[in-house]
Design a protein that fits this description.
Blueprint lengths: L2 E2 L2 H14 L4 E6 L8 H26 L23 E2 L2 H8 L13 H6 L11 H13 L8 E4 L34 E8 L4 E8 L3
Helix pairs in contact: 1-5
Length: 211
């Protein structure tokens, strides 16, 4: 059984990230005391984040249709099928890349999380130095700590990211949620689950957006 924790800190950080223009959604969970974490727990955590995202979308729609101009707006819909999702563990080098704060103008490494944090399609609005401060606060909340052996699973590793690919269709490479449709147009997609055994926190982050 996973329960949502750090709700106040998450809400405050999420608000600041949204104000800056960041594209990421996230959740921080904790298992029962003494519970041994398995891939099933990671999958359950991903499911909880997607439930939270759908709830957030519906709440935004509810607020929007209070304005008569948008009263007929269609409610957002999002589906996902985690039975199709394939998880790949990240190695130490890839996890280290997640925590780096050096932006590269050309060919950033595959897990340049800071780059994606700062450069969604519409850009971000940070004051000088604020991006690194906010990013490090976010990593800390997620349980991504230097010097701590964390387990990170990548849930979008097998997606077909090359829309010009000429190979035969492969259902195993299809996205398991329409949430990822926007990001697969060109910007990219993220979905990672992070287990920190010292803190006993299981976090999930996700992003998918377009211009």
């Amino acid at each position: 059984m996973l329960k949502v924790i750090e709700q106040q800190a998450s809400a405050s950080l999420r608000q600041r990230m949204e104000k800056a223009g960041c594209a990421f959604e996230f959740i921080v969970l904790a298992p029962e005391a003494g519970e041994v974490i398995t891939p099933t727990h990671h999958r359950q955590a991903v499911d909880q984040l997607f439930l939270a995202i759908k709830h957030l979308w519906l709440e935004r729609h509810r607020q929007m249709i209070l304005d008569p101009r948008y009263a007929d707006a269609t409610p957002p819909n999002m589906t996902w099928n985690l039975d199709k999702a394939m998880a790949k563990p990240l190695n130490r080098q890839e996890i280290a890349q997640l925590m780096g704060v050096d932006k590269q103008a050309h060919n950033p490494p595959p897990f340049a999380l800071y780059e994606a944090f700062c450069e969604p399609p519409y850009g971000t609005r940070f004051s000088d130095g604020d991006s690194q401060v906010l990013f490090r606060e976010w990593l800390d909340l997620l349980g991504l700590e230097a010097g701590v052996e964390v387990e990170v699973l990548n849930w979008v590793d097998n997606f077909n990211l090359d829309w010009l690919a000429s190979d035969e269709p492969d259902p195993a490479r299809d996205p398991w949620s329409d949430y990822f449709d926007d990001g697969l147009e060109w910007w990219g997609v993220w979905c990672l689950s992070i287990w920190n055994p010292q803190r006993r926190t299981l976090s999930v982050l996700a992003a998918s957006t377009t211009d």
